[in-house]
Write a structure and sequence with these properties.
Largest sheet: 8 strands, mixed
Strand content: 35-45%
Number of strands: 8
Shape: globular
Radius of gyration: 16 Å
Length: 132
């Protein structure tokens, strides 16, 4: 079995055990995209779950077009519902998660989609954000 597949299996088993013992109630899984509580007057953040341990989730963040400097997106016309995957990761309590979010790889006219990554200095198109 591949290391990543084995790790995902272990993460799911660990998460199930935590749920059964009542240590946390948010049901999140590795690979899920979630809405995360943000500050007042701002929409929720969006992240993908990389790891879950002891009620803390390692999250990899998406950026909205408004979050990226205009100088970086020159020549790239982002759609209103487009997100940009980043390499930015950090740990947050699962209690900050307010729901799940669907993010596709192509624009369908409904919901969010991601076709590019934001590197901090550039926007790079991707074949599929899940492989990034």
């Amino acid at each position: 079995m591949e290391t990543a597949a084995l790790r995902a299996l272990c993460d799911r088993a660990y998460e199930t055990r935590l749920n059964e013992t009542g240590k946390y109630t948010k049901r999140v899984r590795v690979g899920q995209v979630v809405y995360v509580r943000s500050g007042p007057g701002r929409g929720p953040y969006i992240a993908t779950i990389r790891r879950v341990r002891h009620g803390v989730a390692r999250m990899r963040w998406f950026y909205r077009p408004d979050d990226i400097p205009a100088s970086v997106t020159i020549g790239y016309m982002p759609a209103e519902t487009e997100l940009f995957i980043s390499a930015d990761c950090d740990d947050n309590e699962t209690g900050l998660i307010i729901g799940t979010c669907d993010v596709g790889s192509v624009e369908t006219g409904t919901g969010y989609f991601c076709r590019a990554a934001f590197t901090g200095t550039a926007v790079v198109t991707l074949p599929d954000w899940k492989d990034a």
